[in-house]
Specification:
This protein has 193 residues and is an alpha+beta fold. The protein contains 7 helices and 9 strands, in the order βαβαβααβββαβαβαβ. The protein binds coenzyme A.
């Protein structure tokens, strides 16, 4: 089994195949099928799978819902994890403000959590943030433990840059009450371990 994507640049991520074993995911598959977990930038055909995945977690109250139209309009901001034809993970990087971006809609198929798929997608977006020369990324989550494992830290919402607050917090605050605002500086991506 091999994993594609999560390279240091979008160009390399789109085209290269990294031969990194993911045995635990392979073990869940039909051995005849030789499954390949691929992490790559999303394309238009991924939109329905992304929408389904986000909807499953939104129905459980864990993510904000996104309509198919919203996903389609932002599909170039998404990374997807695919096993064959199936979208088993997604996450989006929305650039907003000067050299800043928001990570949102991070979701892994509930039957495939705990195998590193979420981390690989976040790392992909951090690579992309570096390629875009961003300074910081932010996110809003009810699951700080996962993002702490990905190198993010919790901050006070008052410490968010003013230019970011309008787009970032105003909409989401109405939905989540037990939320955490988290950030990661991009310059430390390859030095944090
Ligand atoms: C959160 C989510 C994306 C994690 O995906 P995943 O593929 O299971 O995560 P990974 O296997 O890559 O885990 C990476 C690390 O985070 C840890 N982790 C993952 N989920 C965790 C959780 N809920 N609580 C604590 N730690 C968690 C893992 O143990 C692992 O730790 P390690 O560094 O010791 O190996 C997935 O559970 C999900 O889709 N949840 C619902 C939607 C959601 O909450 N999204 C985040 C808000 S946008």
């Amino acid at each position: 089994m091999s994993v594609a994507g999560a390279g240091r640049s979008k160009a390399s991520a789109r085209s290269s195949t990294v031969t990194q074993p993911v045995e635990v995911v392979a073990a869940q598959q039909d051995s005849q099928a030789e499954p390949v977990l691929e992490v790559r930038s999303a394309g238009p055909s991924d939109a329905p799978g992304v929408c389904d995945l986000v909807s499953r977690w939104a129905n459980a109250g864990r993510l904000l819902p996104r309509t198919l139209r919203e996903v389609e309009s932002l599909i170039e901001c998404f990374v997807v994890a695919r096993l064959g034809e199936e979208v088993v993970g997604c996450a989006a990087l929305i650039v907003c403000g000067e050299a800043m971006a928001e990570i949102r809609s991070v979701a892994v198929d509930p039957t495939r959590t705990g195998h590193g798929i979420g981390r690989r997608m976040v790392e992909f977006l951090l690579d992309e943030s570096m390629r875009l020369d961003l300074d910081r990324v932010f996110l809003l989550t009810r699951n700080p433990a996962f993002f702490e494992r990905c190198g993010f830290r919790t901050i006070d919402p008052d410490d968010l840059p003013d230019s970011f607050v309008h787009d970032f917090l105003n909409i989401q605050q109405r939905t989540f009450t037990d939320r955490y605002v988290m950030t990661r500086e991009i310059g430390d991506v390859y030095h944090a371990g």
